Amino acid sequence: MSTFHLKVLTVDRVFFEGDVERIVVRTTQGDVGILPNHVKYLAALGIGGLTIIADGKSRTAAVAGGFVDVSKEQTVILARTCEWADEIDISRAESAEERAKAKLQQKLSEHEQDIASIKLRKAINRIRIAKK
Amino acid sequence: MASGNMKDIKRRIKSVQSTMQITKAMELVASSKLRHARERVTKSRPYFNTIYKTMARIAGDTKAADSIYTKPREIKKSLFIVIAGDRGLAGGYNSNVLKLAASEMQGKNPCVVTIGRKAQEYYAKRDIEVIADYPNIAETMQIQDTHPIVNDMLSRYKKGEIDEVYILYTEFVSPMTQEARCKKVLPLAFEKEENSEKAKSLTEYDPSPEAVFASVVPEYLNGMLYGAVVESYASEQSSRRMAMESASDNASEMIENLNLSYNRARQAAITQEITEIVAGSGQVGS
């Protein structure tokens, strides 16, 4: 089976590097699957999952923000935050969800509301990925 | 008289010793912090380099050429983000970056955002507009911490309140050398060769070049700022460790010299005492 080289980087670590068969990543426009020999492609990432399929096995991670850059040589994902599903601390994510919900109940400036709703979406995403 | 001299010397030895204890302790603290800081630098570099290359490529793509982030404009106001330490006693670390900042600001209409308490203190006393201070964030810096700084900067840039942005930081070249650097981040400017390399790429942008560009630019700036802070912090620890090491060395050399003069003074006192006794007994005997 043909493969392509994938690099997933965050500021504090090299999250993943290796040859993979297929990935599915959530961009701002929705989930996008990338196979070998994909056309050059660049998109911003939303809040969602990243599924990496290599050697017939699939692994899922929660990703929020950043972008994906597909070129001929390799595919690079530069993520703002990225965690494997099994690394996610569900109780922490749940308490983050509670906090964000409580925050949204209060009267907030538009900016604060944006921050809180993004936090809420991130928390829900992490819980969803972790429980998959 | 001689014993008074000895006491003086003894006191000085004590004081140098206690100073040495402090510098020694600071040296040890700095080397352990340096270890962490260097690790952080090594871990952030792959991201840093990749985002720089990607950005250079996108910026070179003709479709992105007339975005507000790349278009050069008339420079009326320049923003300098100055990254210095939170504490002193770090050799030339703080003064080097502040000196470079002063020379870069010449002939411009500057305003500053300071990161680190030393930069804050420096600009508080000067006649330069300070937009914001961010003291005490370098040590525990996380990528989320750069967002408010970058968002504020971008909204000012879009409104035309500032026309260009520089980051002043100290590059961690090696544990022995750190260099103060000034990097222009806005409008985006990259070296020519990187631009021309893949200028005619047929990249597909999802949903549109503008939208992708608009979300990649903040990402890039966050990455650059984070990288600059991490590098600076490692440089600070490294230059503090060096300064404290040489201070400890100087102190031990000083103690050695003082010990020598102490022994000399003690010897002189003993000799004098013997002379006095001998002279005294000679007189009694005769």
Structure, explained:
The complex is a heterodimer of chains A (132) and B (286). Chain A has a seven-stranded mixed β-sheet with strand order 2-1-7-6-5-3-4, covered by helices on one side. The longest helix of chain A is centred in the C-terminal third of the chain and has 22 residues. With 132 residues, chain A is of the alpha+beta class. Chain B is of the alpha/beta class and 286 residues long. Helix content of chain B is 63%, strand content 14%. Chain B has a five-stranded mixed β-sheet with strand order 3-2-1-4-5, sandwiched between helices. In chain B, β2, α3 and β3 form a beta-alpha-beta unit. About 2% of the residues of chain B have low confidence. Classes of the chains: A alpha+beta (132), B alpha/beta (286). Chains A and B meet through β1, β5, β6 and β7 of A and α1, β6 and α6 of B. β5 of chain A pairs parallel with β6 of chain B, so a sheet runs across the interface.
Q: How would you concisely characterize the structure shown here?
A:
The complex is a heterodimer of chains A (132) and B (286). With 132 residues, chain A is an alpha+beta fold.
Show the helix and strand layout.
The complex is a heterodimer of chains A (132) and B (286).
Chain A lengths: L3 E7 L2 E8 L1 E6 L2 E5 L6 E14 L2 E14 L4 E10 L5 H16 L4 H22 L1
Chain B lengths: L1 H59 L17 E6 L9 H13 L4 E6 L1 H8 L4 E6 L8 H17 L4 E9 L5 E9 L5 H6 L6 E3 L2 H77 L1
Helix pairs in contact in B: 1-6, 4-6
> What percentage of the residues of chain A does DSSP assign to strands (E)?
over 45%
Secondary-structure content class of chain B: alpha/beta
What is the oligomeric state here? Answer: heterodimer
Individual helix count of chain A = 2
Judging from the principal axes of the Cα atoms, what is the shape of chain A?
elongated
DSSP E strands of chain B, number? 6
Considering DSSP H and I runs of 4 or more, what fraction of the residues of chain A is helical?
A: 25-40%
The secondary-structure element order of chain B is HEHEHEHEEHEH
> What integer is the average pLDDT of chain A?
85
What is the CATH domain class of the largest domain in chain A?
Answer: Mainly Beta
Q: What's the pLDDT, averaged over the residues of chain B?
A: 84
**Which chain pair has the greatest contact?**
A-B, 25 and 27 residues
> Count of helical segments of chain B?
6
CATH topology of the largest domain in chain A: ATP Synthase, domain 1
The largest beta-sheet of chain A arranges its strands as 2-1-7-6-5-3-4
Radius of gyration over C-alpha positions of chain B, nearest whole angstrom? 29 Å
Major sheet of chain B: size, sense and barrel closure? 5 strands, mixed
| N-to-C CA distance of chain A | 27 Å
